[in-house]
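Appendix B. Extra example for self-study. Work through it before the problem class; the solution is given directly after the inputs so you can check yourself.
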Amino acid sequence: MLGFLARRLIYLVPVLLAVSLLTFLIASLLPGDLAYVILGDQATPEKVAALRHDMGLDQPLWWRYLGWIGHVLEGDLGRSFRTGQTVLQAVGERLPVSIELMLLAEGIGLLVGIPLAIVCAARAGGAFDRFVTGGAFGMLSVPTFLSAILLIYLFAVELHLLPATGYVPFAEDPVANLRFFILPALTLGLAEWPTIMRVLRSDMIATLQEDYVALARAKGLKPWRILFVHALKPSSLTLVTVTGINIGRLIGGAVIVESIFALPGIGRLIVGAIYTRDLVILQGAVLLVAVGFVMVNFIVDMLYAVLDPRIRHGHA
Amino acid sequence: MATLELTIRERIAARPARRASRLGLLFWLAIGWMALIFAVAIFADLLPLPSPTDMDMLEKRAAFSGEHWLGTDGLGRDELARLIFGARTSLVVGLCAPVIGVVIGGALGMLAGYFRGRFETLVVGCMDVLLAFPPLILALAVTAYLGQSILNLTLILGVLGIPAFTRVARAATLTLSRREFVIAAQALGATHARILLRELLPNVLLPLTAFFLVGVAITIVAEGALSFLGLGVPPPEPSWGSMIGEGRESLDIAPRLAFLPAIAMFLSVLSFNLVGDRLRALTDPRQGTL
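Solution. Structure tokens for the complete assembly:
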């Protein structure tokens, strides 16, 4: 286990370095001089040159990268020249919103997906299974912005049950906060459950054909006990991966859903930074999101090894 | 142990093989819808349609009529014409972007899967790096700074698709490389180029084609999402995504302005997914249970 952990950790180093390099390159190579952005189009060339010198923009690219990554490693990701906020402050402010949305959406996805998968796998090929599998396949073809519009139309425009857009912090008013989160979480949950259902169902069907399940049946164990106690854990490997990737993705903010429902999460922070050309925030937030994604994947790999001993011993 | 696994594989394989043999009515309906949108997108200029960009402020959000079959949008533009020209946008981006992915990703994946070793580690590592970035944000940043045009949109969506195609090609090549016909070719002294092009490529092509169709569906959704946010296809060029975005403003008075392009997009995405899935089930019977 320790050897496996060490191998994965060593692999992380070049990946994280490459991620930081790519983030830096994207933010630096995009056209539009930062000095002009700050000073405006009317600035004199002398002023621009002076500011470029102050900010180190006249240095070669690789030197600027080393300077930036040095600061990043010290925990200083820079400060927005528009709002004066540091990147860490801006991200820290938005992160709770994205995490709450992620938890609710994954919760809905798992709550719908897992029971459906188990019931479908127990009677694979039956009428219910075909109905749910078909429904899941159809749902996979519904982009989130379509289901968002449909939900807004149903619950906000027609039924007037829920607010279409807006946000209140949880600490201020938990009930209002949850009311604002229902539609966005439902939108994402609707997109999550088909994948969850499909991978678990397929793994479960394979598990149910194993000999030890046949033995459990022969011993006369109750069907629900076989399904939930004996078959669920060995079938959940792919499910763990899929859920992990989803979590990693959603921590980075659900750009579309946050935009539609006007939730102030990480996704909207980054989109706002793109619109206002706030390169420092863009660079810092994208770096944090990408590193977060890599770390979540790393944790998933570790979980995998815990769940399946064959992987940590290197012959899977 | 080995025989046990074998019997399990056979048992799993036996079930969907039957299902795959009958493609079913849905498959042909999907092919029919694809043929329809291809036809109207190609012949859009020849069809007797009003212009998709001409505005008529007196006819804002007009209902269905003989003149405007599907009514008009918030700026008095003909909805049917915009839907049909929007299909053209979706198909141009949706077909061209995955071509970039399938060519570059397919080549990288095959080389990585065939030669293995350091090169494979490098390719897999590069793809891990690319996958770490939220794709939509990357696309947003690039279109925002390089300018909104169909070309830029296609290029960035194409590049973002490379990792997925690399994975599919590498996985297929890995299993095929151990098959007898490849070993036989090697024993006969075939060059690497010959093995890759004449022995492996025809076999990798089938799963790649199946995934290409799914890639088209994903790209249509991505283009729609970017246009929906106003950072995709530049207005007044019609796109289903931007039509849905504009229709969202009038959900209370004219919901059909959002729902008509939404239905068109859903049916197209579903069709490409369905056909791609059936093709994949044909090539890989074991995965067909998904």
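Self-check: Chain A has 15 helices and no strands. If your reasoning did not lead you there, revisit section 3.
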